[in-house]
Amino acid sequence: MTDELGRPLSGATLIECCDDAAGAYAAKMLGDLGADVIKIETPTERGNELRRQPPLVSMTPPLGAMFAFLNAGKTFITLDVGTPTGRALFAELLGQAHVLIYDVPVEGRRRCDIESGALRRQFPELVVVSILPYGESGPRSGVPAHSVNVFHACGEGALLPNGLSYDLFPDRPPLSAYGQVGSLQAGVGAAVAVMAALYTSAGGQVLDLSEQDINVGLSGMTLQRFGDGVTENRRIRSYAYGGVIECSDGFVELLILEQRQWLGLVEMMGRPGWALDPRLDDPQQRATAGKAINQHLRSWARDRTVEEITALAKRSGVPVGAYASPEDVLNSRHEASRDFFRPLEIGDAMNLQAPALPFRFLPDRTAFGGGRVRLIRGEDNEDVFLKRLGKSTEELERWLSTGVV
Amino acid sequence: MHVHQPKTTPPLDGVRIVDFTHHAAGPYATFFLTLLGAECIKVESVQRLDIGRRPHPVYGRPGPAGFEQPMANKLSATLNLKDPRGAALAKRLVAVSDVVAESFRPGVMDRLGLAYADLILVRPDLVMLSISSSGQFGLDSADPGYAPIFSALGGLGYLTGYPDGPPVEIRNMMDNVTGMNAAFATVAALYQRRRTGQGCHVDMSAREVATNLVGDAIAAASAGLAVQRAGNARAYCAPYGVYPCAGEDRWLSICVTTDAEWRGVAASLGRPDWLRDPRFADASARWQNRAALDLEVSGETAKHDRDALAGRMQQARLPVMPSLNARDLVADEHLRGRDVIVELTGPEGQTRHSLSAVWQFPAGEAGVTRWPPTLGQDNNYVFGELLGLADDEIADLRREGALA
Lengths: 405, 404
Prior knowledge:
Chain A contains 18 helices and 15 strands. Chain A has helices spanning 21-32, 65-71, 84-95, 106-112, 116-122, 147-152, 164-168, 181-199, 211-217, 220-227, 259-268, 283-288, 290-302, 306-316, 326-330, 333-337, 381-388, 393-402; strands spanning 13-17, 36-41, 56-58, 63-64, 75-78, 99-102, 127-132, 205-210, 243-247, 250-254, 320-322, 341-345, 353-355, 359-362, 371-372. In chain A, strands 5-2-1-6-7-8 form a six-stranded parallel β-sheet, sandwiched between helices. A three-stranded antiparallel β-sheet of chain A has the order 9-10-11. A three-stranded mixed β-sheet of chain A has the order 13-12-15, with helices on one face. In chain A, helix 8 (181-199) crosses helix 9 and helix 11 packs across helix 14 (306-316). By secondary structure, chain B is α/β, with parallel strands linked by helices. Chain B has a six-stranded parallel β-sheet with strand order 3-2-1-4-5-6, sandwiched between helices. A three-stranded antiparallel β-sheet of chain B has the order 7-8-9, covered by helices on one side. In chain B, a hairpin with a 5-residue loop joins strand 10 and strand 11 (351-355). The longest helix of chain B has 25 residues, at 172-196. The radius of gyration of chain B is 25 Å and the shape is elongated. Chain B starts with 15 loop residues before the first strand and ends in a 5-residue tail after the last helix. Classes of the chains: A alpha/beta, B alpha/beta. At the A-B interface, helix 2, helix 5, helix 6, helix 7 and helix 8 of A face helix 1, helix 5, helix 6, helix 7 and strand 6 of B.
């Protein structure tokens, strides 16, 4: 089932019916590994669509960067599953597929007769993956949520920011990580579940996935500390020393976890007198003196550039990482040496890129990702309805004019 | 309501992992695989205790963790890999396993004689998982890294934070999502092996996980568009953020993206006058006047108990959610009903909360079943049962330091 690129999911067909980022991201990961992903959008535009969410990488028609990143390489059709004909066409597509990923709200599933149990009975070999903010079952199952809600639903939102940002702004609201990280993380979890379902020989099944459940799954340390008797909060979850350090032209992150790294830090800073205090040889004493260490560290770093400090740290074996902007990451020599960025083909645009999946199957160094993104919804309707499902041109034209497709 | 389905075995039933990972990302990767049913043998040594078994003052942890979440569900076997007999036993264990996982800096496994090239001699179809900060090859591959460092290198730290503030370090969650990506890649590799008979060496780069989480910003940057820190905001959506409720550190996330949701929020907060205010008449106006809008909304939410307000608004199907802490999570009826968090009982009758059903698989097999092992707890099973060593052989190896 692998193709010449070594992609394991070649030959698998996945139907994606997702408005939000989580399911779309899971389908993207599976598509990057070779699955044929058919993405269903509604025939007409609705408010607040991911397609038009800025920043826009295309203006005519508008196409958002997030939509482009999530949907490169997919086949794009339009279909209104709420109509009887649309429902029947949906069933034909499912009959030829191995996986369905959908995030239609629970109420909408009932109205359109596409509840997961019903689909499972109709298609016994199909892996039906429901991805909703809080799942299909439980007291909160019908409640809508967006990425910031999800991030704050898992325990991590209450802990950001800590360190320097919290010191500067202790009274401000807690933060979600950038953008739609909560939803993308849920997408990663969904991809794991789909992959595991395909791996089994159990045939079809329903996976009731929740964005909150998966993100809670990524908050294990928070739970663990609670069991230790500590309910973490932004104020106390802070490294004793190190963390976000401002340089003359940006920021670096510095973290010392081993004794040899501390010795390297002392060397890196030129063996200043304060660092040679023998009490600082002991990790516990260093933790107690953390504020004072940070004052020295910040004062030292303020006059040096990110590049300078990164180079010094590399020589001394001190774990340091520059806070890289998206431009910095795109221009990273390290990532160029890994051929990490893949082209996004959008209309005539020649220069657009996206990160590949964050892993390779060595010894083959092929990076997986990128591909074509359709500017117009339904651009692959003919390919799917005429060629794959064998419908006639007249039928398709009638469905287009009545809004079924 | 759960859909009734015939009982099946866990997805990764029968898969055995030899786990050399340490710290966070690696142990979480293998932990997630155990939730899916894999057997995981954590190979440890007193020469180099994993972080969970020792104190770490820089984290504010004066003693070792009594319960290490990522060690739940695993077995523990001790081996001194620097002893030739220990290294030989490691290879024998690999020969009867499906997956080897490690998270050392690239080069360490080579020096131990346990590189992929060495291990496929004993298990030709092996799937080896290597997790590192910057990957197994590339200019920075030898550099050390931890979660806040690779989230900075990957672009996620830069983009997280208040618009007028510094970048923000992403900590354990960055390790865990790296682990989850690694679990995905490992199952994909096992799937490939099932079809082709060939294994592979999975090269997982943690900083590239971070870059994927900001993949939209990368695409935008390639189009010449700069993306900056935006706090909790989402472009052209307002109110969209986190708002204070009554009491100390009690916050409610409210994420309005449609006019219908806005009307619902105004009604729930008892402010129908907002709907007549031209500043908030439509999405565009609300975005233009978002600073004033946030002040208005905060002024109202601050009068209310967080959970009571959230309950009413969620009943009205509005996109709101309290900013939950650990205490909130373990008390959450919805999560407990889905077995996401369960109570485990340890060997001495002690109980702890643990993650469990992160995924709802049919008949509920995906979850946690074992308390974290003590160091070397499963040596007899691993060396006796799996590798067929006699009791006196095991005793000799222990005495001579090969199992330490």
